[in-house]
Amino acid sequence: MKQGGIDPGLKRLFQQRLLRWYRYHGRDLPWRKTQDPYHILVSEVMLQQTQVDRVLGFYDRFLKRYPSVEELASARRSQVREAWDGLGYYARARNLHRTARRVTHRHGGQFPRTYEEAQALPGVGRSTAGALLSFAFGTETPILDTNVKRLLSRIFIQRLSPRPAQTERRLWRLSADLIPKGKAWTFNQALMDFGALVCTAKNPRCSTCCFTDICRAYPRLMRERDRRRG
DNA sequence: AACCCGGGGTG
DNA sequence: CACCCAGGGTT
Q1: What's the pLDDT score for residue A1?
Q2: Is A82 a catalytic residue?
Q3: Closest amino acid to nucleotide C3 (CA–C1')
């Protein structure tokens, strides 16, 4: 097996620390209170190019207007566009609408449960499919949005390949391999929150991070911080 | 004015 | 498989 897997000890350590961190610091977001795949999909699509703070102002309103996938499916395009107004990236609303129609009419109102089928829905790529399935059904499917990319590459990747696509593959494999059995929901939520709250793009909170002892990027991040401070 | 970023389209 | 862009918003 080329490129071997991740060291089992390191893997367990990472899982345990991350899950523990999430118990204390995970955010209480409205889409984390539901198991309804439709509600979860709405949140994930809204979150695609949009910050959590902004989505918070739209999520409840949209679902109040379209509480079920069938109701969204039977709406007019112009109405859906209106409910999306202010969120931008309106292609997302069109795709969500198309997905609702497809789920309603082609899947009998049931969301697909396989990675391949989920990804085939309009506006649903690898990452959104992984989130949808793990959050709605607890499936052990990986996610890889920019937050997760950043934190996994910082902690686990010593030298990134000059080929971006190769790094991408390594990260997907990492994200999949790290999922603890039976805990995909919590683990994936935790990855997202950790990337958003601690392992941020600029000014990462290394001083409160529980991974500095294993983080491959920590020395560099410290040098960069020191350099900024002159 | 540059930068952000999942999906999707293209080479 | 590898890259490249579109799109609305933020910094």
Answers
A1: 44
A2: no
A3: A165
